């Protein structure tokens, strides 16, 4: 059965009201129950009880027929909305081309070419290469008949360049799909592959040039690839110049950003995330402000889809800038939101667990952990192996703090058996070293403040420069350092983030 309730739960208040108006307009009878069904679904009314609520008895046949008609109306409504919001520019350009062609048949060359010039400008503003091709095709077709047409060689040059741009965009789209498919093996299955080789071979396969005139969509696709590599290799410091330089170039070239709003919001998030991972919190917040402003555009069309990632990254910035109270408040506001993107929801849960843990609120952290009732394999399929590793690490530390040592031993053995091979293959030996000291601590906590223990720890870790070191690696190490120095965990974390 199609999950109508999930789809309509993503509607804004205004869209809900518009859909009700749409249904009432379509209804030719006063006893139609589609509006009532819509409102019941929106209110999360128990599905099994809906037929009786609507008909006074369990009339499933009538209910399924009504539900099917509601789905049909929903499809029509969403299509109408999409035409209004998404393709108005394309429709306008297409109409201009059609009118111009009609005028050309009537030999109204001056007016026709003026219209085509405006169509070209608008299509170029939104980087719509296929419509640009239609404009140039029409201009070239009639160029020999009138002096009002631009020089033929200029038109041919423009058309050829546009065809290359169109082909480049298609190549990028295919390359993005191939690389992402392979990256799933790393993110979700824990396999180790050579990213540089993968990207190089894929680019060579599709003949992609490094000199690309990007759009927000193609930049987002490239940034996603680069971001995935950086997430595994912990090299966020190296990718920022490329993404930021191209973002500024696109912003300068594209006068109209509404058309690209969906990808614009995603690019802004990626940039803000890169600055956060580099510990440049002011810059991250700067781009989050832009992201929030973009989320408010087009009557908040993409607001709901973007809210959890935005709120979570905003909270992370505040937490590691020293404002833990605000960070916790931000995530507590959205922790119970339902029917949002699962991966974003899990990120919110895990981040709030970390915030509580850093403040010594272990019972609160454990309460959220109780909601993680699926297996690690299930979470790996939904969020990737890196998220599961973080979850398991913080869980181990949490139960050490709660004194559940027998549970820790059991989870430790399971974690070691499952993930140590992955750490060794991926060169993440620091995790293995860290866990060795964690095990030493919870078996003999009295030794953690000894000179011998501190010396062993200091000699076992090689730290990168501050901008290159992974902020989450530092967060876990801060727990061990706080134990050795008998200092508050949160302040120790802030000191490490600031000074390493």
Low-confidence stretches are none
- Average residue pLDDT: 83
- Terminal Cα span: 54 Å
Beta percentage is under 5%
Q: Write down the overall geometry.
A: globular
Helix-strand makeup class? mainly alpha
Q: Helix coverage percent of residues? A: over 70%
How is this structure best described in words?
With 500 residues, this protein is mainly α. It is 76% helix and 0% strand. The protein has helices spanning 4-8, 13-26, 34-42, 50-55, 60-85, 88-105, 109-125, 129-142, 152-187, 195-206, 216-233, 236-253, 261-277, 281-295, 297-300, 303-320, 324-334, 342-358, 362-369, 376-383, 385-401, 405-426, 429-443, 451-460, 471-485, 489-499. The longest helix is centred in the middle third of the chain and has 36 residues, at 152-187. The protein is globular and about 95 Å long. It starts with a helix and ends with a helix. 30% of the residues are buried.
Summarize the structure.
This protein has about 500 residues and is an all-alpha fold. Helix content is about 75%, strand content about 0%.
Keywords summarizing the entry:
single chain, 500 residues, mainly alpha, 26 helices, globular
